[in-house]
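Hi team,

Below is the intake form for GTP-binding protein from Chlorogloeopsis fritschii PCC 6912. Please confirm the fields before the structure is written into the shared record.

FORM ID: S-0412
PROTEIN: GTP-binding protein
ORGANISM: Chlorogloeopsis fritschii PCC 6912
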Amino acid sequence: MKADPHMIQKKICMVGAFATGKTSLVSRFVHSIFSEKYQTTVGVKIDKKIINIQDKQINFILWDLYGEDEFQKIQISYLRGSSGYLLVVDGTRKNTLEKAFDLQKIVENAIGKVPFILVLNKWDLTNEWEITDTELATITQQGWSAIKTSAKTGLGVEEVFQNLAQKILEG
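The structure came back. Fields below:
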């Protein structure tokens, strides 16, 4: 697909704790692939994908940031210029939801209020799920958009990016 010079370009950051599936979600969305092999993101990995929404083409520039843990803090400079972000949680590890709440505040303090979606990844592992429906209800009552995904099966992945594009266009 040839790039249209009038195409809208939007920087999107993938934010979340260590090993929540950020890279796998990007691989599934951009290349339609999933690998069982775990790859640690060092720094940031950038991918692009053109999506069509509301008769417009948007070139998503996806910044896959390394996962935050007790040893690494998110680089605020990576967030600058973002039009939106996906806050990725591993549904099988409840502590990644708590980390997501902290990261959401960090991102908002760094770049202001921009559209985001809470991505509840690894839905294919529902028998290992640690986040309750009650917790999810509380999140959505706060006005957050939350979508269950599986980078492995592809469930919800396209929907997440389409919804974020919609929020950005409405913004």
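SUMMARY LINE: The mean pLDDT is 91.

Thanks, M.
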